[in-house]
């Protein structure tokens, strides 16, 4: 039955009206999609973060990097299979592509990755090379499987592989040193929120630990102190501190790798705890894991001398030192330790000193500071010098070199003391309450400081790892300068002068870059201490020369059993006479100057000539 004409016309008009509304809505959707697609090839202003103060943090830079990365299909994308493809008009497809990560061509990054695994990962096993290379292969062969976590992990490996310059640099520009790997770090940090909660695999933890390792080599290491907390919490959620959980849940090879990741997190946590004077996250009492083996079957952590004859497991050494660093903070610098008696504090100092010396005794002689430059390869030198720097830094803190009662604090001027006070952060004020070093401990600290500095002086500046070693180097400088002031006639004086000149030059190069260590304030202190040390040396030399001349005049001899060669010509003003007299080394009571002193010893003669109690230096000046 046919519909009446009027009804048919009304229905047609209704359909046309509905169709018009649908077309209008569709046009609005297409307009929005076109605008989004048109902006895919440029940086939207709304996505670029600016700082009103004119300064940007590393995290802000990281956000910017992620938001402005070239995406597959864009005109600036040349890093993936999508390069050169044209954009489609599908709104949903453009959104997917805008959130896809990218990497440079494989042939560009593979040399950096190989460098990382051959030089760094072998000593600090952050990644399983087999699993990483499999992931990297899948990245380039199966674009659909790409994830932000994998992208971040590759960027961390690229950053670590770029950390050390390929060619050693003698005169390093430390202001530009971080540019080689900072971009890769920013990329990884841009997905930080996804990494800290990633528990389905190890990529999140590995990337976090890689970031912490890198921050330890940078001028501003404070962000590493924040990230290590997130990393250790992730370790706990993954139950890596429990040996039983790992043995039950994973095959042996995977379990071993998880155990090693736990110890990497542990050593970074303890090292940062002592360095920044903050409590560590991981409690020793809550660990059920064996220490890394000293002789692992796969050789992970082993480093050798250049001739391959001497081996030590670097990874185990670092973990054991981290344990002592953690105990140092707990026993001497924690809030709880501030309530112990002085006798108990001294007993703890002795105990920690024993632990540190015992740790050092496990390092072969061929790998100690005096031998590393002649016996080790380049990367082994870098690793061992940084390890020894951590040891020296810990020893210095155990013996209270930065105590308010330390001898050098009484040498410097009020202006220097004020600068030192201004440079102290709240987290470092616990140093001033420590006991100053005993004489034997002071002598040992001088020896270690000289040994460590001498080793670093022989390295190219690019290999010194200045930021990781900065606190130890500053302590060494203060110790050696103070020793020059206290003992201006010691036999290592000329070497100490060379060491302090090198240390001052290195610290001057980075004093305006440092964030963690207040080098600007310490520059005032060091300059004051250096001036006083040199003045003491000059005064001691003048007094020794005056005493020498007086004794020669009295004795009528050039020396006891040794003649000083006299110039053949009369003018000897420019001839430098040897300093054979050392007032600290000679036992005055044992010298018998019978010729010219009437049979008296030199001490008896001096007593008869000068009042009792008069300083010998004053008497001859």
TrEMBL record:
Q: Where do the coiled-coil regions begin and end?
A: 5-32
Predominant location: nucleus
The superkingdom of the source organism is Eukaryota
Q: Which UniProt keywords apply?
A: Coiled coil, DNA-binding, Nucleus, Transcription, Transcription regulation
Q: Which residues form the Xylanolytic transcriptional activator regulatory domain?
A: 224-298
Ranges annotated as biased composition (Low complexity): 72-94
Q: Where is this region: Disordered?
A: 66-100
SMART domains xrefs: Fungal_trans
Localization terms from the record: Nucleus
InterPro entries for the chain: AtrR-like, XnlR_reg_dom
Q: Name one Pfam family in it.
A: Fungal_trans
Q: What name goes with this protein?
A: Xylanolytic transcriptional activator regulatory domain-containing protein
To which species is this protein native? Podospora pseudocomata
């Amino acid at each position: 039955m046919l519909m009446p004409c009027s009804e048919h016309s009304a229905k047609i008009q209704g359909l046309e009206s509905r169709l018009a509304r649908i077309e209008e809505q569709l046009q609005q959707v297409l307009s929005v999609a076109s605008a989004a697609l048109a902006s895919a090839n440029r940086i939207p202003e709304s996505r670029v973060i600016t700082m009103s103060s004119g300064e940007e943090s590393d995290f802000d830079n990281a956000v910017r990097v992620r938001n402005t990365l070239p995406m597959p299909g864009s005109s600036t994308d040349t890093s993936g299979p999508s390069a050169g493809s044209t954009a489609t008009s599908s709104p949903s497809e453009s959104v997917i592509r805008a959130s896809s990560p990218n990497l440079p061509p494989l042939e560009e990054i593979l040399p950096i990755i190989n460098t990382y695994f051959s030089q760094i990962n072998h000593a600090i096993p952050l990644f399983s090379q087999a699993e990483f290379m499999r992931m990297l292969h899948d990245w380039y062969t199966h674009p659909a499987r790409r994830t932000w976590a994998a992208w971040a992990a590759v960027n961390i490996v690229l950053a670590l592989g770029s950390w050390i310059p390929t060619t050693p640099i003698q005169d390093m520009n430390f202001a530009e040193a971080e540019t080689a790997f900072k971009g890769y770090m920013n990329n990884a940090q841009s997905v930080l929120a996804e990494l800290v909660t990633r528990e389905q695999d190890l990529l999140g933890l590995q990337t976090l630990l890689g970031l912490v390792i890198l921050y330890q080599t940078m001028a501003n290491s404070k962000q590493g102190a924040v990230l290590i907390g997130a990393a250790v919490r992730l370790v706990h959620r993954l139950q890596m501190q429990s040996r039983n959980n790992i043995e039950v849940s994973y095959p042996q090879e995977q379990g071993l790798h998880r155990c090693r990741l736990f110890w990497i997190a542990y050593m970074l946590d303890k090292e940062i705890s002592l360095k920044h004077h903050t409590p560590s996250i991981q409690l020793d009492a809550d660990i059920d894991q064996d220490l890394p083996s000293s002789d692992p079957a796969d050789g992970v952590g082993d480093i050798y001398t250049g001739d391959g004859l001497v081996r030590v497991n670097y990874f185990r050494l670092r973990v054991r030192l981290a344990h002592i660093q953690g105990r140092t903070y707990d026993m001497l610098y924690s809030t709880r330790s501030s309530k112990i008696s002085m006798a108990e504090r001294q007993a703890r100092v002795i105990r920690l000193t024993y632990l540190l010396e015992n740790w050092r005794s496990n390092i072969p002689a061929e790998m100690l500071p005096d031998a590393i430059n002649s016996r080790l390869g380049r990367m082994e030198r870098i690793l061992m010098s940084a390890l020894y720097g951590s040891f020296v830094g810990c020893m210095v803190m155990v013996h209270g070199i930065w105590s308010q009662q330390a001898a050098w604090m009484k040498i410097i001027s009020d202006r220097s003391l004020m600068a030192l006070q201004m440079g102290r952060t709240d987290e470092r004020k616990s140093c001033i309450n420590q006991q100053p070093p005993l004489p034997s401990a002071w002598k040992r600290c001088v020896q270690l400081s000289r040994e460590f500095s001498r080793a670093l002086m022989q390295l190219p500046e690019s290999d010194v790892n200045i930021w990781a070693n900065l606190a130890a180097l500053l302590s060494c400088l203060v110790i050696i300068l103070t020793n020059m002031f206290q003992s201006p006639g010691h036999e290592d004086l000329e070497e100490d002068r060379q060491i302090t000149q090198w240390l001052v030059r290195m610290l001057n190069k980075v004093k305006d870059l440092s964030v963690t260590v207040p080098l600007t304030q310490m520059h005032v202190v060091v300059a004051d201490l250096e001036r006083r040390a040199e003045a003491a040396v000059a005064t001691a030399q003048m007094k020794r020369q005056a005493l020498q001349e007086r004794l020669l005049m009295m004795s009528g001899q050039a020396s006891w059993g040794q003649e000083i060669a006299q110039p053949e010509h009369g003018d000897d003003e420019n001839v430098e006479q040897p300093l054979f007299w050392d007032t600290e080394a000679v036992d005055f009571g044992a010298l018998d100057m019978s010729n010219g002193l009437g049979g008296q010893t030199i001490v008896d003669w001096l007593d008869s000539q000068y009042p009792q109690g008069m300083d010998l230096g004053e008497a001859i000046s």
